């Protein structure tokens, strides 16, 4: 990830508040995966095989070279241009036994001793993090276990290590052919129940004030289906009861590869469950355009072609908590477009919005975005860097100025205080 634009010009100091025990190149990430475990391979502890059981554990991700110190990593993070080559590696992993066994469609047999350790370790970390929240990252296709863990760790790091990161690693192959021919599409669909079980566990037994979901590409298939299934499991609960029960905050569909009609069928469920739902679109996502060409020809929700239908559906169903962020809109005034399939973390502007969104519950206008004179549609204006830095200065600067132990408090603005 390049340096998010909100960190440029040193308007705020995103790492100065980090408590001393966390001032290390290592970032801890918890994980849940329905990949098959490889017992004798420390470098690739989970392969591409499918498991009907959900494995839980924790890993440590190293940012930077092996001899890098904390100060080196801070410098890399604050002065890292796009397309630079900074290594991110899996340093260590703690694997626990197969932890969850599904005994019937909606009944889960939690293996008491094992899953208690997972929950207790997350709760310990929540107690020692400024933001008492969890971010669950759901990767796309052509992604192995280690890159999924690394990305979750990277997002946590750039957010100032303020929340607890959890990677959900579904068993995608590490080649695009398996996706195009439908193998990994079926695996994504099959993995929704495992993600649903993870959400249930985190909501029922952790102390998180909020659980945020960030999914990318084919991860949108897994996430949208899991949320729809979760909603359908509770026909007797209204949206307020659902949100109180599951405490879902922001659900972000970044460059998501989900067919438009299928997604719109599931969107009311996501809207009922989450505080806010964000869909990002662009006019130049080569991967999503290729998916449309080679996989049944249906429009993908992460493309600008889907925007009008998405907005009409949102308005007709009165979904005030759903936002569309068109990262291509306004490119004439800016002088550049934001395109590709990785823009959501590789472009400094979009990376800023993701970080600020995960770190706070600020609405789009307070995150520096402008309304496109169309309800529920937002974009990056030409003066976005100035706007987002002003927002960060007013919301985060005072609390990110000093380590928490020097302030006599937890040292960061929580979402409930924004």
Structure explained in plain terms:
The chain has a single domain (5-417), classed as 3-Layer(aba) Sandwich (Rossmann fold), CATH 3.40.50.1820. The protein is 37% helix and 22% strand. The protein has 16 helices and twelve strands. It starts with 25 loop residues before the first strand and ends in an 11-residue tail after the last helix. α5 runs parallel beside α7 (219-232). It has a twelve-stranded mixed β-sheet. The model is unreliable at 404-418 (pLDDT under 50). The chain has 418 residues and is an alpha/beta fold.
Quick overview:
The chain is an alpha/beta fold. It has helices spanning 70-78, 112-127, 145-158, 177-180, 183-190, 192-205, 219-232, 239-246, 260-273, 286-294, 307-316, 331-334, 343-346, 348-359, 384-395, 404-407; strands at residues 26-37, 46-63, 88-102, 108-110, 133-138, 164-169, 210-216, 248-254, 274-281, 322-326, 370-371, 377-379.
